[in-house]
Inverse folding.
């Protein structure tokens, strides 16, 4: 989605351990960030962190896995996951924060099942790559850790090259773009100033992060944002004016019988997708919206009643 930053945290989506290595996937690609969804009935997680529900919110438009969720919205902390109206949306913290794994003491080497035919995104989060990250983090820190990570990722069979992206960094954060042999690409940001925590995370700190994630979602909805969550923890949010003018043409396109290629082309024209976004990248980042979009009668009614100031668009030369 153009002008919308869709961010995935490969190792943690929470601010507890947001290591320099955050895969900020912007517009063109995203990563399958988590190996499994939490069980909402997990007795350990629920009994440890409890259940907290916010007040109903009538603003905003929420889409989960391509499906519009009817308002009002009740955002809920359940264990370490976030639910809205009883629907699982995302993890507030990563599994390994809740269920710590033993340290990696032996170098796991390179994955055996990756090749040049794989997308660059297929390496993340490959279990061997994940283990290598943990191994290197135990051996190095700061810039030395960053360099060892970059060297390792360069050696992955599915990575053709890595280039510095000077526009991606903020403050001490440095951006790199990884390219696959198949033409795929993804953005990686690293922070050499990061230092890993030296003690386990407390229950109180984890609860703070869970609460923060709930409040972030509530804030977006209260601001009447259009909020997307996908089955791979893809997140995006935008203003109503980004849905294609007064007639909300984006919704019409997503609901149509067009094939994926036609939808991508139409969404590019509306600036919903970047003009250079390929069909493969669009599918990787927005598969649910492109192939599994589901509206509801409420959505149509709510959109008709919205008063939105739409930006003027340049005249394409045609008559309307």
């Amino acid at each position: 989605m153009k002008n919308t930053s869709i961010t995935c945290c490969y190792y943690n989506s929470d601010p507890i351990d947001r290591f320099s290595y955050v895969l900020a996937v912007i517009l063109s690609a995203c990563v399958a960030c988590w190996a499994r969804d939490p069980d909402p009935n997990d007795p350990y997680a629920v009994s440890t962190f409890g259940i907290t529900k916010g007040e109903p919110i009538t603003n905003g438009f929420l889409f989960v896995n391509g499906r519009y969720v009817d308002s009002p919205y009740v955002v809920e902390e359940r264990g370490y996951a976030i639910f809205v109206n009883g629907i699982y949306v995302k993890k507030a913290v990563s599994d390994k924060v809740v269920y710590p794994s033993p340290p990696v003491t032996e170098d796991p080497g390179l994955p055996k099942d990756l090749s040049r035919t794989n997308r660059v995104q297929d390496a993340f989060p490959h279990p061997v790559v994940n283990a290598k990250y943990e191994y290197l983090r135990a051996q190095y820190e700061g810039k030395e850790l960053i360099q060892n990570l970059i060297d390792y990722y360069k050696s992955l069979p599915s990575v053709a090259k890595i280039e510095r992206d000077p526009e991606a960094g903020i403050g001490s954060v440095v951006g790199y773009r990884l390219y696959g042999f198949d033409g795929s690409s993804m953005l990686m940001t690293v922070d050499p100033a990061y230092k890993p925590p030296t003690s386990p995370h407390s229950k109180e700190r984890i609860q703070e992060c869970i609460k923060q994630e709930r409040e972030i979602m509530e804030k977006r909805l209260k601001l009447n944002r259009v909020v997307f969550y996908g089955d791979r923890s893809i997140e995006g949010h935008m203003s109503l004016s980004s849905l294609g003018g007064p007639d909300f043409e984006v919704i019409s396109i997503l609901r149509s019988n067009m094939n994926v290629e036609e939808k991508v082309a139409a969404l590019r024209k509306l600036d919903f997708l970047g003009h250079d976004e390929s069909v493969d990248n669009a599918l990787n980042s927005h598969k649910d919206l492109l192939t599994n979009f589901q509206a509801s009668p409420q959505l149509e009614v709510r959109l008709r009643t919205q008063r939105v100031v739409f930006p003027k668009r340049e005249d394409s030369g045609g008559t309307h």
About this structure: DSSP finds nine helices and eleven strands in the chain.
